[in-house]
Amino acid sequence: MLKVGLTGGIGCGKSTAANLFADLGAPVIDADRISHALVKPGAPALLQITRQFGPDILAADGALDRNKLRSLVFSRPDYKKQLEAILHPLVYAEMQRMLQTLHYPYVILCIPLLLETKMQHFVDRILVIDCSVEQQINRVKLRNRHSEDTIKAIIASQIPREQRLSAADDIIDNSGDTTKLAEHIKKLHNLYFSLGKNQN
Ligand SMILES: Nc1ncnc2c1ncn2[C@@H]1O[C@H](COP(=O)(O)OP(=O)(O)O)[C@@H](O)[C@H]1O
Ligand SMILES: [Mg+2]
Question: Pick from 71, 101, 131: which residue ends a domain?
Answer without folding.
Answer: 101
